[in-house]
Design a protein that fits this description.
Layout (H helix, E strand, L loop, with lengths): L24 H5 L3 H7 L7 E2 H11 L12 H8 L3 H15 L3 H33 L5 E7 L7 E6 L8 E4 L8 E13 L1 H4 L5 E2 L13 E2 L4 E13 L5 H8 L6 H31 L7 H10 L5 H20 L2 E2 L3 H8 L2 E4 L11 E7 L6 H17 L7 H9 L7 E6 L7 E7 L7 E7 L1 H5 L2 E4 L6 H16 L2 E11 L11 E10 L6 H10 L3 E5 L4 H10 L8 E2 H5 L3 H10 L2 E3 L3 H13 L4 E4 L6 H6 L2 E5 L4 H6 L2 E3 L4 H42 L7 H15 L20 H29 L9 H22 L8 H16 L6 H4 L6 H27 L6
Parallel strand pairs: 1-2, 10-18, 10-21, 15-17, 18-20, 19-20, 21-22, 22-23
Antiparallel strand pairs: 2-3, 2-4, 4-8, 5-6, 5-7, 5-8, 9-23, 11-17, 12-13, 13-14, 14-16, 16-17
Helix pairs in contact: 4-6, 5-6, 5-10, 6-11, 6-25, 9-10, 10-25, 11-24, 12-24, 13-14, 16-18, 20-21, 24-26, 24-27, 25-27, 25-28, 26-27, 26-30, 27-28, 27-30
Length: about 850
């Protein structure tokens, strides 16, 4: 809601807060800070709690309309838009037009059952995901007062509880929770690509600028790249600028969505091709006209894997629920679980992943490498005033380690500070000179190369190229011992300057800290290697430091690549380098994103684990982005998978669960498509050879319905243990090659049954004996389909749901000709001799499937 100047109190508003006439964002941009605060009935100390509660109850939560979960009826209607479902409905309409009411009714039942099962699965999965996502809800630091006489207090509240007039604090990595007007800022830059398309961070300042400018406004959906700010909220919920843009942005398809959609549209084209092909063939070779249309429609329906959306949703939802229950891993979108299982390259940062994020001071040296306590004292001055003045949401572990080692800060009063900037790679603190009024001391701390590039001299002499090389070698020797090295510099200024533009500094020395290795990192890296996942380390640290840590963990660093080397490479050369190298040091956010994109272009399925705002571009470039629960708000919101802790072991467990879920989906596709394709080929061939239709339309549909119901067990199956040893991905081309091979084998088995019927029971292929033929072939089809459910899935262990489903399908195939429904379906009782002949055919068929599948396994062709 956008607010305007105060109105008089009303009896309906206990806080005296009545919604006044609207004040547009353009008008907000043209007002001074004091005018905006007055118009919102707020002040620098924020709102009174009672007024904030009244506004929240009156205008609702700060949420976007699209974020509300869809209702079950809406999900059901959305399921009807699935390509398979649309084709089935069209075939049902055709059946009704030609008065084939049985076929039309079965199609309607098939569509209804499929949509109900899918809607229930999606609804339950989304409810579970929504409940878990509440644990990760974005929060904001808000400044409020218990009543008008109390001092303001700062506290964290959920972002959806914010109202216009709230005063909030922003720091690096924070999502801007609503449209805000800045009141105070320090080195603030924001990413607002979602709104304006600007890829680089945009500078924002809290000045009273002329009307029309928006340099002092920040929009919901943007994120803080660096700096800090105090701001007042001017619009929330549907009234924000982001709300309109968010409605126009379509959902980006994942790799899994693209794979499944590719398979779906291939099958849809075949379904549309089958009916005219059957009609033409029957008209040309058998002289049948429109009487073959119901059969052709039933054959097209028989080609459809109707349970595909249901099996996919159920398998992924069960895997996600298992991860949340056992490892506190939250999968924010279901297809990301497939992408997690398909990962063959995982890119990680060093700090907090391979090492614990709790560094400790090792040494402080001057420009000659001699111990110097003064270097530590100036570093602690920088750390203390950065933490005090930069309004950071959380303290930097490096600053905490420095302050823990040095408590003597001298008699310095802080003036201004700039927190560590991931682009500049420095932090700055400005303190007043204790002896010279009007003189400031600028203390700079940061990456060695970036600080040295701003220095003009040491305490003793100017910095010439030889001295710079000597300092870099000294930093390299420290980093080679596994230490994280920071450079410290100082400057004296008698004027106000812009933080981050420091030049001509005096170099003081180096602060070196040692990271503790993560306790389970070595074991986790070994486990990932055994599962076929290559780990790439992308870090901003010194190359020698990163290489030393990798060697201590048993990971061969090879030739370490630096960010400067990356800058000089074309995309194709970078893709080859990214594939061969393991450690990339001195990387900026853009370097990480380029490396991830290069790995994807080289054909790898890539995951990225990060937690900072500088990891955001790489996370968005990866197939699946992973972050810990304590990551920056903007990073956590962009991630696909959220971990309880930043632990490689947990990622390994997620990869295992993802591969098992994908394995079940792939097993369903292999079985369903192979069996359906074989049946369609056999029915087309038999339809041209017989004087009658090989199956009545109702029989085809009943067979398809029984098989589909049995295949739901794949969503609850236990995947082959061997499937977790390699990346698993649904690949349409390889899947269709598998279907072509085993579909042909299935068709041969059906035609062999057809030949056996002709040889043993010649009367079964006459018009008077077609009921016996239909009964025999339907029984054989259902038995072979139960058999392929067991033999075409990988692994030897068969789960209880799959045993129950195949057993029920086999029993149904034997009992259906004997049931009361047999007469309605055109079936009849078969002689005992047929079952003996059928047993021989099925035994030969099972042996052929077993031999061919094991041959493919030995050749290594077990990919889904």
């Amino acid at each position: 809601m956008v607010w305007a100047p105060d109105a008089p109190p009303s009896a309906s508003d206990p806080a005296g807060d009545v919604p006044p006439e609207r004040l547009s964002l353009t008008e907000v941009a043209g007002h001074t800070r004091l005018e905006v605060l007055r118009s919102l009935g707020s002040g620098p100390g924020g709102l009174v709690e009672a007024r904030a509660e009244a506004r929240l109850s009156l205008h609702g939560e700060n949420t976007l309309p699209e974020r509300r979960p869809a209702s079950w009826p809406r999900r059901f209607v959305r399921c009807l838009k699935d390509p398979f479902t649309l084709v089935l409905l069209c075939l049902g309409v055709v059946s009704a037009v030609i008065a084939s009411w049985g076929t039309a009714c079965v199609i309607v039942i098939l569509v209804a059952v499929t949509c109900v099962l899918r809607s229930n699965g999606e609804y339950r999965a989304d409810r579970s995901t929504a409940a878990l996502r509440k644990l990760l809800g974005v929060t904001a630091t808000v400044r409020r007062r218990p009543d008008g006489r109390d001092a303001p207090a700062e506290r964290e509240i959920p972002a959806d509880q914010l109202v216009p007039g709230d005063v909030i604090k922003l720091g690096p990595g924070d999502l801007v929770p609503a449209d805000v007007r800045l009141l105070r800022s320090s080195g603030l830059t924001v990413h607002q690509a979602a709104l304006t398309g600007e890829s680089a961070p945009v500078t924002k300042q809290a000045g009273d600028v002329p009307a029309g400018a928006d340099g002092h406004l920040c929009w919901q959906g943007s994120s803080v790249a660096s700096g800090s700010a105090l701001a007042v909220i001017v619009a929330t919920g549907a009234d924000t600028r982001f709300a309109g843009v968010h409605q126009q942005n379509p959902h980006r398809l994942s790799a899994f969505d693209r794979s499944v959609n590719g398979i779906s549209w291939i099958l849809v084209r075949l379904m549309l091709l089958v009916p005219p092909l059957v009609l033409v063939a029957n008209a040309v070779f058998r002289g049948r006209g429109l009487e073959a249309l119901p059969f052709s429609v039933a054959v097209a329906v028989g080609l459809t894997p109707e349970m595909l959306p249901v099996v996919v949703t159920t398998a992924l939802a069960r895997g996600s629920a298992a991860l949340a229950r056992t490892h506190a891993v939250i999968v924010k979108r279901l297809p990301a679980l497939h992408d997690l299982g398909a990962i063959d390259v995982l890119c990680v940062d060093k700090t907090g992943t391979l090492t614990q994020d709790r560094p400790r001071l090792d040494r402080c040296v001057d420009h000659d490498g001699r111990p110097d306590p003064a270097v530590l004292r100036w570093a602690s001055v920088n750390s203390f005033w950065t933490l005090q003045l930069a309004d950071l949401p959380a303290a930097d572990p490096l600053d905490e380690a420095i302050l823990e080692a040095e408590q003597d800060l001298g008699d310095y009063e802080g003036v201004d500070a700039l927190a560590f900037d991931p682009v500049l790679r420095i932090s700055c603190a400005v303190v007043a000179h204790p002896a010279r009024r009007g003189t400031h001391l600028v203390v700079v701390k940061g990456a060695v190369e970036d600080v040295l590039g701003r220095c003009a001299r040491t305490r003793d002499a100017p910095l010439d190229p030889m001295a710079r090389r000597r300092l870099r070698r000294l930093a390299g020797r420290l980093a080679g011992k596994g230490l994280r090295v920071l450079a410290v510099a100082l400057a004296e200024r008698s004027y106000v300057h812009r933080l981050g533009d420091e030049r001509g500094l005096t170099f003081l020395g180096f602060v070196a800290m040692r990271d503790t290795l993560a306790p389970h990192a070595a074991q986790a890296l070994a486990g990932l290697a055994q599962r076929g996942v290559a780990v790439k380390v992308l870090t901003g640290d010194h190359p020698a430091t990163a290489a030393r840590v990798c060697r201590e963990l048993g990971l061969d660093p090879g030739d370490v690549v630096t960010g400067r080397h990356i800058d000089g490479l074309a995309d194709t050369a970078l893709a080859d380098l990214a594939r061969r190298s393991t450690v990339f040091a001195r990387c900026t956010a853009e370097h990480k994103a380029r490396l991830v994109r290069a790995l994807r272009q080289a054909g790898h399925t890539t995951g990225f684990l990060g937690d900072g705002v500088n990891d955001l571009p790489a996370m968005r470039a990866a197939d699946v982005g992973v972050c810990p629960r304590e990551a920056a708000d903007v990073t956590r919101e962009a991630a696909d998978v959220v971990l309880a802790t930043k632990d490689l072991t947990t990622i390994g467990e997620g990869i295992v669960v993802g591969r098992r879920s994908t394995g079940n989906i792939a097993a369903y596709l292999r079985v369903a498509l192979s069996s359906n394709a074989g049946n369609v080929i056999a029915m087309l061939a038999a339809g041209l050879l017989l004087p009658f239709l090989p199956m009545l339309p109702a029989q085809v549909l009943v067979q398809n319905l029984c098989f589909d119901a049995a295949q739901l067990a794949f969503a609850f199956d236990r995947a082959d243990p061997g499937i977790v040893r390699r990346p698993v991905r649904v690949r349409p081309r390889e899947l269709l090659r598998f279907v072509a091979a085993f579909g042909a084998l299935n068709a041969v088995a059906d035609l062999a049954t057809f030949a056996a019927l002709i040889w043993a029971f010649p009367e079964a292929v006459t018009p008077s004996g077609q009921s016996a033929f239909h009964s025999g072939w339907l029984t054989e089809n259902l038995l072979t389909q139960a058999l392929v459910m067991l033999l075409l899935r990988p692994g030897r262990y068969v789960s209880r749901p799959l045993k129950a489903a195949t057993g029920a399908l086999a029993c149904l195939s034997l009992l259906l000709p004997l049931s009361p429904a047999a007469a309605a379906l055109g079936l009849t009782t078969l002689p005992i001799a047929y079952y003996l002949l059928l047993a021989a055919v099925i035994a030969l068929y099972g042996g052929a499937i077993w031999t061919l599948s094991r041959t493919r396994d030995r050749c290594g062709d077990r990919r889904p």
